[in-house]
């Protein structure tokens, strides 16, 4: 195991503890990811093995893995080591963890998927081409006509047979030895053309093809010249195909509870219907990885004839720019090298619009201000354009730059009639939207960036290849710059004006630096150095005036404090050059970035302003939350909000009467939280608190609804799906047909128990059999009427199928009349005779009688079922890294305790405190626990805690909780200040002075009160005196046979807060080693109690290694620890569900006894729901950073 390597490395040095450094975790959190589509350039760009499949964008490989518990594919990793276009990937046939990829620079990389790392790089793999035979179609023999081979595959069972597809001729099966064409396969249409094919390994002689014009998948067998079956899967043509050797093993036949928006664009993977093995995989048994020309990729179950996974589209090349829509920040637009602009819904992470055609390379985009619903785009060769998003067409083009590339387009947000572009021709052109040129600003070299001032509508800045920044004033007729700023040593690429500080702008350059310029002082006021490659993306935060974010070709995003020029944080998660950065208009601490790795990622900057969040939670004065720009930018000032969003919140709160605390917490929480469920959560809180339904927002029904609204809203949705006109939904991606909408409506009605409505919709769709099969669930009378309607229809259509319907309902007259009208007199006679003999009888409806008591029993059963379903759905969201939506599932069924537990386990502590405070008593225990954890977070921030600000924040949080003395003691014991500062903190926490604590400790020791002795020694000038007393107490306890975790944990927990500089004293070496051993062991027991299985073995190993390498006298033996760990493993191992899995070995009697003793010691976790591993928002998303790897487990940190 990986953790064994990590831990053993720790003990190679004796002073490992003294040299141990805190991992430098990035504070900026990744909270969302838009994956790329599959490239349409090369052929071998999809592959599969076992329960994984992979596909390639141009520079990145996407690995999806089957989650067996929920039977769905999830994005597992993104590999982006190649610098040139990836040409092929291939999975190792003998090892499912290993695959290879090649690129146009003759580089082959061998990857380990499980460990997400490169095993080897093979350079100079270019080989010599050789030909054995040339096999041309017979129709071309003797001619010069070309018909390129588009695909060829060897028969997996014989190297003699080769399947070949030509672009025009079609498909042939060839004998490669005799050069004989065995079979020529015929298409149903002459227009059909194939560019990809694949054998089905598990069905000899069977292969599949994908049409290149439209997405038709055809299944063939070598015994027939025509297809066995055809499925139209998409409107766009196939690019490549790959069939899995065997279908993924499915442990559960459970349908996915809802869409997994992180992996799917407009469709999601769902499990197939419950079928027998023969039914499900009759012909052929397999799954096809399908890649389409529009970048779409999916996994199609050939047996069940349905998608297991489908991601309809995505960019397949570098994404150069991204921008949130100003008046609807739920929409994010992206511009790409692939020639398209796409618009995404960031709540669902799905594409909703894509620009028509291909514009070549699109370098830049800019939304029109207000509600114009237009985007301006800048291209490499086709000038600039305006795309009307709703109409789906280009409404204007600008060609003033000729064929020169336009690197930036900027739509003025102060004057919506003006658009600026800058180009390689050396001009920055300002024009009106109807094409009238207002200014042509000539530069001495190419112009790469331009930006309108947000404080002066007539001011525009440019960045030029001549290393200079220029500022122009558009209101004058002069084409000369007002200011020229020099200082960069390489070309300037982007410029950005500060939205909050008038006259301040920044520039990013190929020299790797970002410079801050003050227009009023005509000077560079700061240089931000740290990037190791050219800077591309630039973004000012819209609330904190000194917060600047930059993206670079060094693959990183850096967050800067421009006051001092310091880098606050570096993000390593992108796998290639970072180009575009954009700030969410109404959630100013949410940003998006785009990269050459073809992804768009969403980030939360909120952890950078923890003191500000805590000021809001602690209900501090407005002066400590909101300020003006001048005050906020003063050196040393803690973060203050200065932007439009915070001012509007303050304005609205000041208008409220009564206690505005609940509203204040909600509005600031929504402002500071990233998208992904916080709005949904607050809507449910409002419902629980009794808010009138009429005040719920329009989009409430699109999220997780409270139980009392579910039926009402879903019925309404089904009715809307049935009646809405299609024109209302024009222009978007994947717009459903009327039939698809009716099917969706019918499914909703069926799940709501509205069977009659379902039947009527099925009838409208022509699905009579489905309607009739469930109609008896309404009543037998309704079923008979439906049968009569079907019979009447079939008689009108003159179809023999009418016979069973008439016989089933006993309508002999109708059937006899039908036969007679067709001249089938013998049949009519036969039916009439059968009726006379009594063989055809009508069905009579009987009314069942039931007691009210049985109804009550059913209701209780349904409630229990509902609870289980809610928990299952919540856990699905939680394990998918969406703790807020998991909490929503629990609030929807009024389970406040579990909702709070999910927020806490997901590290959404600030949100938990806000929601818990508003919910009141029902959430109080969890709220207090979240406050304690938040205070601990302040204490554990290594660079900030010694400051008075963080110290006081931690104290304020703890003072908000009842029975807080012990937590305040831990805070004061841990604080590493001088005696005077420590005494100030003691006073704030209402604790005795350091000197008084020494006296109290000595008194408690004389009285034999161990806990009080340890407590007061820790608070004294000599906290190290607490160590031997506390450790001896614990050692004595664990020598007895009946000790429990709760008897020793409080003392051990308290000892762990001793100040580090005291713990590392040479005189404390033995006590330190014993403390570490006890903490390791008790930590393992706590992990077992809290069901955090992944770290249990590592903690046992950690403790064993310490016992092995340190001279200590602790009543723990390595042999005992080993037996305990083996017993825990044996008694908690999952029971095997399949013969294919490793054999299940039941625990021995002795192991059962050891485990039973262990459980007695553990007892129960006091706070409900805080058990199981934690999954923080975004922790499941692929990252190229290695600083989030646990030193205990060697795996990615989920907390």
From TrEMBL:
**What SUPFAM superfamilies would the database entry show?**
Quinoprotein alcohol dehydrogenase-like (SSF50998)
Q: Ranges of Polar residues compositional bias?
A: 254-271
Q: What's in the keyword line of the UniProt record?
A: Repeat, WD repeat
Q: CDD domains attached here? A: WD40 (cd00200)
Q: Which Gene3D superfamilies match?
A: YVTN repeat-like/Quinoprotein amine dehydrogenase
At the top level of its lineage, which domain of life is listed? Eukaryota
Tell me, what's a Pfam family for it?
WD40
InterPro entries recorded for this chain?
Quinoprotein_ADH-like_sf (IPR011047), WD40/YVTN_repeat-like_dom_sf (IPR015943), WD40_PAC1 (IPR020472), WD40_repeat_CS (IPR019775), WD40_rpt (IPR001680)
Q: In residue terms, where are the WD repeats?
A: 79-121, 312-354, 485-527, 528-570, 571-605
Q: Where is this region: Disordered?
A: 249-271
* UniProt-listed PANTHER family: WD REPEAT-CONTAINING PROTEIN 17
Task: Please identify the protein, giving its name as recorded.
Answer: WD repeat-containing protein 17
Organism, as annotated: Leptonychotes weddellii
């Amino acid at each position: 195991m990986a953790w064994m390597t990590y831990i053993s490395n720790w003990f190679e040095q004796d002073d490992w503890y003294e040299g141990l450094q805190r991992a430098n975790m990035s504070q900026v959190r990744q909270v969302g990811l838009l994956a790329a589509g599959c490239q349409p350039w090369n052929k071998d760009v999809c592959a599969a093995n076992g329960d994984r499949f992979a596909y390639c964008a141009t520079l990145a490989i996407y690995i999806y893995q089957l989650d067996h518990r929920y039977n769905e594919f999830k994005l597992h990793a993104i590999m982006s080591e190649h610098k040139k276009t990836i040409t092929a990937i291939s999975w190792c046939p003998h090892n499912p963890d290993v695959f290879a990829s090649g690129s146009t620079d003759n580089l082959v990389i061998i990857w380990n998927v499980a460990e997400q790392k490169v095993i080897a790089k093979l350079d100079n793999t270019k080989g010599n081409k050789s030909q054995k035979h040339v096999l041309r179609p017979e129709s071309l023999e003797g001619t010069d006509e070309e018909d390129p081979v588009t695909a060829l595959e060897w028969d997996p069972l014989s190297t003699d047979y080769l399947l070949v597809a030509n672009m025009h001729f079609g498909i042939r099966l060839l004998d490669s030895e005799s050069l004989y064409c065995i079979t020529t396969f015929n298409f149903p249409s002459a227009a059909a053309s194939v560019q990809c094919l694949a054998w089905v390994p598990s069905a000899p002689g069977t292969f599949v093809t994908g049409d290149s014009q439209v997405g038709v998948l055809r299944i063939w067998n070598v015994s027939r010249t025509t297809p066995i079956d055809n499925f139209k899967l998409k409107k766009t043509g196939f690019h490549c195909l790959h069939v899995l050797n065997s279908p993924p093993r499915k442990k559960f036949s459970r349908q996915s509870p809802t869409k997994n928006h992180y992996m799917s664009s407009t469709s999601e993977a769902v499990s197939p219907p419950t079928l027998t093995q023969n039914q499900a995989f009759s012909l052929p048994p397999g799954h096809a990885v399908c890649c389409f020309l529009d970048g779409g990729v999916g996994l199609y179950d050939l047996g069940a004839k349905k998608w297991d996974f489908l991601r309809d589209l995505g960019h397949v090349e570098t994404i150069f720019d991204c921008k949130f829509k100003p008046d609807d920040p739920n929409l994010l637009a992206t511009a790409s090298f692939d020639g398209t602009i796409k618009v995404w819904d960031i709540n669902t992470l799905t594409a909703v619009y894509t620009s028509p055609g291909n514009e070549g390379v699109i370098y830049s985009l800019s939304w029109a201000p207000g509600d114009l619903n237009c985007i301006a785009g800048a291209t490499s060769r086709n000038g600039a354009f305006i795309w009307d998003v709703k109409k789906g067409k280009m409404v204007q083009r600008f060609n003033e730059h000729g064929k020169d590339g336009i690197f930036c387009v900027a739509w003025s947000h102060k004057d919506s009639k003006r658009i600026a572009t800058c180009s390689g021709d050396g001009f920055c052109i300002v024009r009106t939207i109807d094409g009238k040129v207002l200014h042509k600003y000539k530069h001495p070299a190419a112009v790469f960036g331009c930006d309108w001032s947000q404080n002066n509508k007539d001011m525009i800045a440019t960045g030029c290849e001549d290393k200079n920044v220029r500022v122009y004033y558009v209101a004058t007729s002069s084409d000369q710059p007002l200011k020229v700023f020099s200082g960069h040593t390489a070309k300037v690429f982007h410029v950005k004006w500060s939205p909050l500080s008038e006259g301040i702008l920044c520039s990013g350059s190929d020299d790797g630096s970002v410079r801050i310029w003050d227009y009023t002082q005509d000077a560079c006021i700061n240089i931000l150095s740290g990037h190791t490659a050219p800077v591309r993306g630039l973004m000012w935060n819209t609330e904190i005036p000194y917060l600047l974010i930059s993206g670079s070709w060094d693959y990183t995003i850096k967050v800067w404090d421009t006051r001092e020029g310091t880098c606050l944080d570096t993000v390593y998660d992108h796998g290639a050059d970072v180009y575009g950065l954009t700030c969410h208009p109404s959630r100013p601490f949410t940003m998006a970035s785009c990269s050459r790795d073809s992804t768009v990622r969403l980030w939360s900057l909120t952890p950078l302003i923890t003191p500000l969040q805590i000021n809001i939670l602690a209900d501090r004065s407005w002066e400590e939350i909101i300020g003006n720009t001048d005050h906020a930018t003063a050196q040393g000032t803690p973060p203050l909000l200065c932007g439009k969003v915070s001012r509007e919140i303050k304005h609205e709160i000041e208008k409220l009467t009564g206690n505005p605390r609940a509203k204040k917490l909600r509005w600031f929480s929504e402002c500071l939280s990233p998208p992904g469920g916080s709005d949904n959560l607050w809507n449910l809180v409002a419902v629980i608190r009794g808010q009138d339904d009429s005040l719920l927002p329009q989009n409430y029904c699109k999220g997780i609804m409270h139980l009392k609204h579910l039926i009402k809203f879903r019925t309404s949705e089904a009715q809307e799906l049935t009646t809405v006109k299609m024109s209302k939904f024009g222009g978007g991606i994947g717009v459903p047909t009327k039939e698809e909408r009716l099917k969706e409506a019918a499914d909703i009605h069926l799940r709501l128990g509205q069977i009659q409505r379902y039947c009527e919709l099925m009838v409208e769709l022509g699905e009579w059999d489905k309607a009739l099969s469930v109609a008896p669930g309404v009543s037998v009378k309704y079923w008979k009427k439906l049968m009569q309607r079907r019979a009447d229809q079939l008689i009108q259509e003159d179809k023999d199928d009418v016979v069973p319907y008439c016989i089933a309902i006993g309508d002999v007259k109708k059937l006899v009349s039908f036969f007679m009208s067709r001249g089938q007199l013998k049949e009519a006679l036969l039916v009439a005779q059968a009726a006379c003999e009594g063989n055809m009888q009508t069905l009579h409806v009987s009314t069942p009688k039931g007691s009210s008591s049985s109804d009550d029993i059913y209701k209780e059963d349904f409630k229990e079922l509902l609870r289980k379903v809610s928990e299952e759905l919540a856990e699905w969201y939680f394990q998918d890294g969406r703790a807020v939506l998991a909490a929503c599932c629990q609030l929807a069924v009024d389970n406040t305790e579990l909702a709070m537990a999910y927020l806490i386990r997901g590290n959404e502590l600030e949100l938990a405190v806000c929601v818990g405070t508003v919910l009141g008593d029902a959430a109080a225990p969890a709220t207090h626990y979240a406050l304690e954890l938040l205070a601990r977070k302040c204490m554990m921030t290594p660079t900030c805690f010694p400051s008075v600000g963080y110290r006081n924040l931690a104290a304020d949080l703890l003072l908000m909780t009842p029975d807080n003395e012990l937590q305040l003691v831990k805070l004061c014991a841990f604080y590493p200040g001088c005696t005077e500062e420590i005494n100030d903190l003691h006073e704030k926490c209402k604790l005795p002075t350091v000197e008084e604590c020494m006296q109290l400790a000595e008194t408690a020791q004389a009285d034999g009160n161990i806990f009080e002795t340890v407590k007061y020694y820790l608070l004294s000038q000599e906290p190290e005196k607490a160590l031997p007393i506390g450790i001896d107490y614990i050692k004595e306890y664990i020598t007895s046979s009946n000790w429990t975790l709760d008897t020793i944990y409080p003392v051990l927990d308290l000892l762990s807060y001793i100040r580090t500089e005291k713990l590392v004293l040479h005189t404390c070496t033995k006590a330190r080693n014993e403390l570490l051993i006890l903490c390791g062991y008790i930590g393992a027991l706590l992990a077992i109690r809290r069901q955090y299985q992944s770290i249990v073995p590592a903690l046992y190993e950690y403790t064993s290694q310490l016992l092995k390498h340190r001279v200590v006298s602790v009543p723990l033996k390595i042999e005992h620890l080993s037996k305990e760990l083996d017993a825990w493993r044996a008694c908690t191992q999952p029971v095997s569900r399949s013969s294919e899995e490793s054999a299940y070995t039941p625990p021995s009697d002795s192991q059962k006894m050891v485990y039973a003793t262990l459980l007695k010691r553990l007892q129960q976790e006091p706070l409900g729901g805080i058990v199981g591993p934690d999954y923080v928002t975004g922790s499941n998303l692929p990252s190229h950073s290695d600083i989030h790897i646990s030193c205990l487990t060697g795996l990615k940190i989920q907390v």
